[in-house]
Amino acid sequence: MKIGVIAELLRKPLDEDLDFAGNVLKVDGVQLYAQHPEGGIDLTACTEKELETLQEKCRKLHLVISAVCGDVGSDSFQVESQAPARVEMTKKIIDNTARLGVKVVTTHIGHIPESRQDPVYPVMLKHVRILAEYAASKGCVFAIETGPELADVLRSFIEEISSPGIGVNLDPANLRGVSCVDPVYAVKTLAPYIVHTHAKDALNLYVGSAAKFYELRNPDGTKREISARPSGFKEVPLGQGMVPWDAYIAALREIGYKGFLTVERECGEDPVGDIVMAVDFLRNKLA
């Protein structure tokens, strides 16, 4: 397995983020946001020259672009009036991801209801299937990030889509901290579809509703009325949470996964320091 980081970790211009990843952390690769928060390339609307410049920068730093994160805007796959705009924006991201020579676009799609009879389910199924088929036509995979639902529910949803363009970005922290799913079980359940992973850790502070945590919406855009409290989730530095790293990495090896463990640290007093520590943590685990 290879170690990567999300490039925007420093929240600085993209060139500085990439220099840090390649020259300081010396990791194997980076995952990019489709829209860099501090300026830089925008994979929803960019030129061939910008793509070539990015490719050359990564080549010089010996960095592979492991995936592109397609989380942009607020349009929801659950809301019938919003989903088409999200689909069209994601198609643009897939187009430019393919031009970069990258095969994976990851995103959150929202909480998948357990019941196929739920009115949100067919809305999500319809629009995610469109993107899966579009990604396949471009030689890419549209990878759903784990966390909002149980691993079995996600596998069933993926198998109903039935496309070579659908996959999984497995985030063990979201699974363990929000849905209270054992990441080892999730690896075994989702094994055929895992194309990318995040290396993140978390605590579940109390059991609650994952649907409420991820703000499940109705097809008309209104928030679903859920009486249960949302799951209690706290992201923590790698190795300090509830992800069983030895067993989790062993499970990934068992299924033959050779892709990226991409460090993600979204909060904390010293996120950059935590990322440096996380890279060392993973190197020791993979040694």
Distance between the termini: 10 Å
Kindly provide the name of the CATH class.
Alpha Beta
Give the strand order, joined by hyphens, for the main sheet: 1-2-3-4-5-6-7-10
Q: What best-fitting shape do the alpha-carbon axes yield?
A: globular
Return residue spans where pLDDT drops below 50 for at least 5 consecutive residues: none
Query: Whole-number radius of gyration?
Result: 18 Å
CATH fold assignment: TIM Barrel
Element pattern in H and E? EHEHEHEHEHEHHEEHEHEH
Mean pLDDT: 95
What would you note in describing this structure?
With about 290 residues, the chain is α/β, with parallel strands linked by helices. It has one domain (about 1-285): TIM Barrel. It is about 40% helix and about 20% strand. The protein has helices spanning about 15-25, 50-60, 85-100, 120-135, 150-160, 170-180, 185-190, 210-215, 245-255, 270-285; strands at about 1-5, 30-35, 65-70, 105, 140-145, 165-170, 195-200, 200-205, 230-235, 260-265. The protein has an eight-stranded parallel beta barrel with strand order 1-2-3-4-5-6-7-10, surrounded by six helices. Strands 8-9 form a two-stranded antiparallel ribbon. α5 runs parallel beside α7 (about 185-190). The model has no long low-confidence stretch (mean pLDDT about 95).
